[in-house]
Write a structure and sequence with these properties.
single chain, Four Helix Bundle (Hemerythrin (Met), subunit A), two-stranded antiparallel sheet, 6 helices, 5% strand
Length: 170
């Protein structure tokens, strides 16, 4: 790679160690999300992190908080478990989040992504078609469906983090 070129995106860097081949796309999406959040949160002071870009859109901070919380909840369902009291309380708190500083918010997101990587590594590929239920309504999904949705949902909100950070930075 020549000077001035950035590293290729995670999906072009090869497999992520220990993750089954079928789950590499989810792992790569989560790695990209992690890198994008680190880059975006690092460009904002704490006030800008929680500032809405206007038009009723949520702040970059809210998107980071929600992406991490949703990732945790979706992975819980993928394990075949129900949400616990702390997860339900965290979900309720997303409606009016505590505006923590960027370092604290980033550390929480990093911990959620690290837990996701651990779960991807521990997932037996023979269980990917196993049925899982989602939420109080017990909507049908599979282990694979939940793992991929967890990664794409995280990416969707991280895209909003990147855009919102640019808007509020001016």
């Amino acid at each position: 790679m020549s000077a001035g070129m950035s590293a290729p995106e995670p999906w072009l860097r090869g497999p992520i160690a220990g993750v089954p081949p079928t789950l590499q796309p989810a792992a790569h999406a989560l790695q990209q999300a992690l890198e994008d959040v680190r880059a975006s949160v690092g460009t904002l002071d704490d006030a800008a992190l929680w500032r809405s870009p206007g038009g009723g859109a949520p702040s970059a901070g809210w998107h980071v908080l929600h992406a991490g919380g949703a990732l945790d909840r979706l992975l819980t369902y993928a394990r075949g478990a129900a949400l616990d009291d702390a997860q339900r309380a965290a979900l309720a708190a997303e409606k009016a989040p505590e505006q923590v500083n960027g370092a604290t918010l980033l550390a929480g997101f990093e911990a959620r992504v690290a837990a996701a990587f651990a779960q991807l590594r521990a997932t037996d590929p023979s269980t990917l078609a196993d049925v899982r239920e989602v939420g109080r309504a017990k909507l049908p999904s599979t282990v694979l469906g939940l793992l991929f949705h967890a990664a794409e949902h995280t990416q969707r909100h991280v895209g909003s983090v990147v855009t919102t950070a640019r808007v509020v930075r001016g």
